[in-house]
Design brief:
- The complex is a heterodimer of chains A (about 325) and B (about 350).
- Chain A folds into 2 domains: about 1-185, Rossmann fold (3-Layer(aba) Sandwich); about 195-325, Rossmann fold, CATH 3.40.50.
- In chain A, about 40% of the residues lie in helices and about 20% in strands.
- Chain A has 14 helices and 14 strands.
- In chain A, the strands form 3 sheets. Chain A has a 7-stranded mixed β-sheet, sandwiched between helices. In chain A, strands 9-11-10-13-14 form a 5-stranded mixed β-sheet, with helices on both faces. A two-stranded antiparallel ribbon of chain A has the order 1-8.
- In chain A, helix 3 (about 60-70) runs parallel beside helix 5 (about 90-100), helix 10 packs across helix 14 and helix 11 packs across helix 12.
- Chain A is globular.
- The model of chain A has no long low-confidence stretch (mean pLDDT about 95).
- By secondary structure, chain B is an alpha/beta fold.
- Chain B has a single domain, classed as Thiamin diphosphate (ThDP)-binding fold, Pyr/PP domains (Rossmann fold, 3-Layer(aba) Sandwich), CATH 3.40.50.
- Chain B has 11 helices and 8 strands.
- Chain B has helices at about 20-45, 60-65, 80-90, 90-100, 135-145, 165-175, 205-210, 225-240, 270-275, 280-290, 295-315, and strands at about 75, 125, 155-160, 180-185, 190, 195, 215-220, 245-250.
- In chain B, the strands form 2 sheets. Chain B has a 6-stranded parallel β-sheet, sandwiched between helices. In chain B, strands 5-6 form a two-stranded antiparallel sheet.
- In chain B, strand 3 (about 155-160), helix 6 and strand 4 form a beta-alpha-beta unit.
- In chain B, helix 1 crosses helix 11 (about 295-315) and helix 5 runs parallel beside helix 6 (about 165-175).
- The radius of gyration of chain B is 20 Å and the shape is globular.
- Chain B starts with 18 loop residues before the first helix and ends in a 25-residue tail after the last helix.
- Classes of the chains: A alpha/beta (about 325), B alpha/beta (about 350).
- At the A-B interface, helix 3, helix 5 and helix 6 of A face strand 2, helix 5 and helix 6 of B.
Chain lengths: ~325, ~350
């Protein structure tokens, strides 16, 4: 075991994929000479050369579309979009082509493409670089949406994603890049279809993903001090959702809090909440609670940003309220 | 012809327009024309629904360009692509069955008129987001570049696409990386119902392409031989490592944009003027004058094509609708590894 950062885990995963499969290449803004906006691809240009580590113009729609075309042409592209807000410039290609071509062609054209991007708030970069829009993408049939929350998943999700015959989007919470975790020296691929129970408990289920898993675990620590045993579920895969893991936990704990850095209205948290009520409504001792971001464009000032996004205290308060 | 683009004439092997070949070109255009005319009838009897965009008048573009491609090359087309599909070699049966929404269609009835696909001929649609196909073509060409394959990706789009950001981004990226794309702009002067001059500050489309250092030139899109000649020159240059090339084919659609379009935005004399330049009668006259088409040859060809269209309609009519339990098939792949189409 060794201690590495989430960033380094992701870099190792990309490097490993480049070594293992010559069809794999990386393209995106500043992935080469700059080393990646978040330094995830630092050093890869020097090791693999400019044919496989391709700096692109600031043309999100076209380099994502070119990734789709290259996947159709037999490659296994890893396309990096700098941040989720920029992915909106490529939404046409993701929605109208990547997610649609297989169905629209009657099963002829699959798109084995991986798109990675940073998501989330916490760095005071305000309303055009801080949102959590992965829930929007999780709305789209044909896509697999992953949210690695641990170094193990950062290291292990990419290879199975590249081996998925269909498009996979990986959302990396920007506040996780510097987080360290223990990783085995010979990491194996992980599954990319199930949720994981990160902490077991019997009194309440806290459901989180990506950046909010740490928030949920922090809340569980505090709640333990209050004599409340919280179970923490990391969704890991936002589409398709692993409903079974969620409902089997809630059926035992009888209470659920969903933590989502996205906005509440029309959100992933709404979807999770709906599935709980659809499947285990009569097991609930209290209405499902949600802790989401305030419905505002993300503000710059730190005190406002902190107030806008889910905090440990918010989750703890939600649990206490539903038990009162 | 524009400054940055120089027509590659030296050292290019072009196929002589022998008589038999010209007759073949005529037949291909006529197949498309008669197919689409039958589509109108089928639309009236509601066998075809949804949007139906006809390329009547524009057949020379599809037929001329396809002649320059090999089976290994790729084609990306638009939503007005019946002609491209047929010229590329999709069967009339599978195409008509698709229009009728049948499982025997080239997209299992999932796509309809706007989304014809055929992996076996590397026909990548059937794209109904204007300019959305250009990045795909750039990517297909990037795959060929990375794998060292000497293949061409021909990408069709209309003049309307030139206003989209994806057009400019794709021109830039294809040129920057010298990717083997043949950009085929079918300039029919209208983006749906709005004239080019009302939407473009610069209406010389080749000039736009050449501003990205892409060799670009115009060709008479109503003359199939001119289109073929230009496409062969361009495709050879692309295949030879010359980077992307751009052809602006000046053409015109004789019918409305779609079956819903009342065609209020064009003056009748303009439409009639272009019909004088219909590529099919022009080629018939040329072949008749030179004695290649003898008395009765054209009738025979028409009769053969009518039989092919009849057969395609009968095939489509006799086809089956996909079972409802298959509604959710192919949202994701049924295989677990590998690309279906390398």
């Amino acid at each position: 075991m060794s201690l590495i950062t989430y960033r380094e885990a992701m870099r190792q995963a990309i490097r490993d994929a480049l070594i293992r499969d010559e069809r794999v290449f990386v393209m995106g803004e500043d992935v080469g000479h700059y080393g990646g906006c978040y330094a995830v691809t630092l050093g890869l240009l020097e090791e693999f050369g400019s044919e496989r580590i391709r700096d692109t113009p600031l043309s999100e729609s076209t380099f994502v579309g070119a990734g789709i075309g290259a996947a159709l042409g037999g490659m296994r592209p890893i396309v990096e979009v700098m941040t989720v807000n920029f992915s909106l410039l490529a939404l046409d290609q993701i929605m109208n082509n990547a997610a649609t071509l297989l169905y629209m062609s009657g099963g002829q054209l699959n798109v084995p493409l991986v798109i990675r991007m940073a998501t989330g708030a916490g760095r005071q970069v305000a309303a055009q670089h801080s949102h959590s829009l992965e829930g929007w993408f999780a709305h789209i049939p044909g896509l697999r949406i992953l949210a690695p929350a641990t170094v193990e998943d950062a290291r292990g999700m990419l290879w199975p994603a590249l081996n998925d015959p269909d498009p996979v989007l990986i959302f990396e919470h920007a506040m996780l890049y510097n987080v360290e975790g223990e990783l085995t020296d010979e990491p194996a691929p992980v599954d990319i279809s199930t949720a994981a129970v990160r902490r077991e408990g019997s009194d309440v289920t806290i459901i989180a993903y990506g950046g909010t898993v740490r928030t949920a675990l922090g809340a569980a620590d505090q709640l333990a001090g209050d004599g409340i045993a919280a179970e923490v579920i990391d969704l890991r895969c936002l589409r398709p959702l692993d409903t079974a893991t969620i409902v089997s936990s809630v059926a035992r704990t009888h209470r659920a809090v969903v933590v989502d850095e996205g906005w509440r209205s029309g959100s992933l948290s709404a979807e999770v909440s709906a599935r709980i009520t659809e499947e285990v409504f009569y097991d609930l001792d209290a209405p499902v609670a949600r802790v989401c971001s305030a419905e505002v464009p993300m503000p710059y000032a730190k005190h406002l940003e902190d107030e806008a996004i889910p905090q440990v205290a918010d989750v703890v308060a939600a649990v206490h309220q539903m038990r009162s | 012809m524009t400054d940055a683009g120089s027509t590659p004439t030296s050292g290019v092997v072009t196929r002589p327009a022998d008589d038999e070949h010209v007759v073949h070109l005529l037949r291909e255009m006529l197949r498309i024309r008669r197919f689409e005319e039958r589509c109108v009838e089928l639309y009236s009897r509601t066998a075809i629904r949804g949007f139906l965009h006809l390329g009547i008048g524009e057949e020379a573009c599809a037929v001329g360009v396809m002649e320059a491609l090999t089976p290994d090359d790729a084609v990306v087309a638009t939503y007005r692509e019946h002609g491209h599909a047929l010229a590329r070699g999709l069967s009339m049966r599978a195409t008509m069955a698709e229009l009728e929404g049948k499982i025997e269609g080239c997209s299992r009835g999932r796509g309809g008129s706007m989304h014809l696909f055929d992996a076996s001929t590397r026909f990548y649609g059937g794209n109904a987001i204007v300019a959305g196909g250009l990045p795909l073509a750039v990517g297909l060409a990037l795959a060929d570049h990375l794998r060292g394959r000497r293949r061409v990706t021909a990408c069709f789009f209309g003049d309307g696409a030139v206003a989209e950001g994806e057009f400019h981004e794709s021109m830039n990226l294809a040129s920057l990386w010298r990717l083997p794309v043949l950009f085929c702009c079918e300039n029919n002067l209208y983006a749906m119902g709005t004239a080019l001059k009302l939407t473009e500050s610069e209406t010389d489309l080749s000039l736009k392409a050449s501003s990205y250092r892409i060799p670009a030139w115009e060709v008479d899109g109503m003359d199939v031989l001119a289109v073929e000649e230009a496409a062969r020159q361009a495709a050879e240059a692309v295949r030879g490592g010359g980077g992307p090339h751009f052809l602006e084919m000046r053409t015109y659609r004789f019918r409305a944009h779609s079956m819903y379009d009342p065609d209020r935005y064009r003056e009748k004399p303009e439409v009639e003027g272009w019909k004088e330049r219909d590529p099919i009668p022009a080629l018939v006259a040329r072949l008749s004058d030179s004695g290649v088409l003898a008395e009765g040859d054209l009738d025979r060809m028409e009769s053969e094509i009518a039989s092919e269209v009849d057969d395609a309609v009968a095939f489509a009519d006799a086809g089956t609708f996909e079972p409802l339990e298959d509604l959710e098939r192919f949202v994701t792949s049924e295989t677990t590894s590998g690309s279906v189409v390398p």
